[in-house]
Amino acid sequence: MENRYTKDNKYYQETIIPCYDADASFHLKPAAFMDLAQELAYWAAGELGFGFDDLQTHGTAWVLSRMHIRFTDMPLWRDKVRLITWHKGLEGLFFLRDFRMEDETGKERVACTSSWLVVDAQTHRLMRSDRLENMVQPDTQSPDNAIEASCPKVQLPRGVEAEKTGEHRVSYSDLDILGHTNNARYVVWAMDCIDPAQTADARVKDLYINFIKETRLGDVVELFSIHDADGWTVEGRVEGHPAFCARIQF
């Protein structure tokens, strides 16, 4: 697979959508895009000297906190695509990273913006961003926006009682390289809460997700959802405390 940086500080990979990342309508699954984006982010940051291995030497790690994905024209199985990413520097406590998926003609298929935190690898406590100032150089950034605004806070609507629509016990297949639930798995669980008739007949337009608290092997995540005219809001809780909240619009 070809990996490279462009002159405007954007890193890309070209790939073909595989069958295991597509749903029964042959479209790319939302969680599959998240998997692709996270892997690309690791490669891109590593090329610039602040990737997974670099942070490990400082006893720290990247943690994805928020993500907004806009599916402009959902790719299909066997489509050839280019996935592009670039980082935009700091916004408050968050390091911002954007993504764009294009087809062979350069047409946008997916746009995404994400917000990342740096935590202590042992305690998982938030680290001050100035610890990375010497690693994340301004001249490696790009000012372009895949989506204009960074991902907002997502929460269940107030004054409406959420319905329990499922639960999931965190298992081996959910875990990532840090030993906690891979972020894309929360989207899988959220999508499973939605009426199958809707996911079969309609495409996801926008997906917003906030990661609030990590979950680990054996945790039971209770899933609560609210359905309105615009879509679904799904919150996962462990022992009554929110672990994630996602807003999915069709």
Annotation keywords:
eleven-stranded antiparallel beta sheet; 4 helices; globular; alpha+beta; 250 residues
Structural commentary:
This protein is of the alpha+beta class and 250 residues long. It contains 4 helices and 11 strands; from the N terminus they run E-E-H-H-E-E-E-E-E-H-H-E-E-E-E. It has an 11-stranded antiparallel sheet. It is globular. 36% of the residues are buried.
Describe the structure in brief.
This protein is an alpha+beta fold and 250 residues long. Helices cover 16% and strands 38% of the residues.
Q: For the largest beta sheet, what order do the strands appear in spatially? A: 1-2-4-5-6-3-8-11-10-9-7
- Count of separate DSSP helical elements: 4
Mean pLDDT: 93
The geometry reads as: globular
Amount of helix: 10-25%
Q: What oligomeric assembly is this protein in?
A: single chain
Hey, roughly how much beta strand do the residues contain?
Answer: 35-45%
- Gap between N and C termini: 33 Å
Structural class: alpha+beta
Element order, helices and strands?
EEHHEEEEEHHEEEE
| SS elements, strand count | 11
**Largest β-sheet summary:** 11 strands, antiparallel
Gyration radius (Cα, Å) is: 18 Å
> Can you tell me the residue ranges where pLDDT is under 50 for at least 5 consecutive residues?
none
